[in-house]
């Protein structure tokens, strides 16, 4: 088992992709703290699937198979709750090795219909929640390192195609997910010296957050199953992944792809003067850079385009 005796926190672990992450981490030997406040995607109260809510349901399922898990019902929108969650993992299990930031919520609106409250809530759950958990976990691992201890710690964040490419009606969600991808890279840079890696997954799955997703496969295989990305999370949470950090991994069914964020293209426009650009030259220069000049005009190469 890849994660024997490692301790993991999974936020948003009560349903959908998060639930599958918890089950897979436990299957690989991890002791799992399942975090889920038990509210709906829009913040409304929902009927509990277990007496204590979905987190208890997942913890019970893990315990029933001989694994180790405890449930937590706090919200990652609370700075103090995130600190308490890290402390609880250390108190209960004596250590913390993995944080999987998966908690999410939706407020899909066109920009002209988006309210301040909706925008703030999406960023509070996705971005602030991811940062808060990351900050408090990193505080713990930094203290371990400063005291002479050794870490083999892992942060696995959750971004999305909307964060990489944008999506109509998801201004808040896309902004939060893009920020999470960049936060992942910053965390990797800052925490490398404390033996902490940070990576993100971009999973493609049919969940409550993507009710219209098209499924494909057969009776034995569903390419949109929420469980498909969980083996990748288990690998990233393991000691075997210590060489990989600051990356975004796209998971599409049974395919893993490397995502390159904010890659500069080789094409370029060089100022005609050889010094500062002039705004007027960009009237044609920018069209040449993007290959949209009408046919018959000066070839891009003549203006310094590669």
Word description of this protein:
This protein is of the alpha/beta class. Helices cover 36% and strands 15% of the residues. The protein has an 8-stranded mixed beta sheet, with helices on both faces. Strands 7-8 form a two-stranded antiparallel sheet. Helix 1 (16-27) runs parallel beside helix 2. The protein is globular and about 70 Å long.
Question: What are the main properties of this structure?
Answer:
306 residues; eight-stranded mixed β-sheet; two-stranded antiparallel ribbon; 10 strands; alpha/beta
Summarize the topology.
Elements: E1 7-11, H1 16-27, E2 31-35, H2 54-64, E3 68-72, H3 79-93, E4 98-100, H4 116-146, E5 153-158, H5 161-165, H6 171-191, E6 196-204, E7 217-218, E8 221-222, H7 230-237, E9 248-252, E10 255-259, H8 282-289
Helix pairs in contact: 1-2, 1-7, 3-4, 4-6
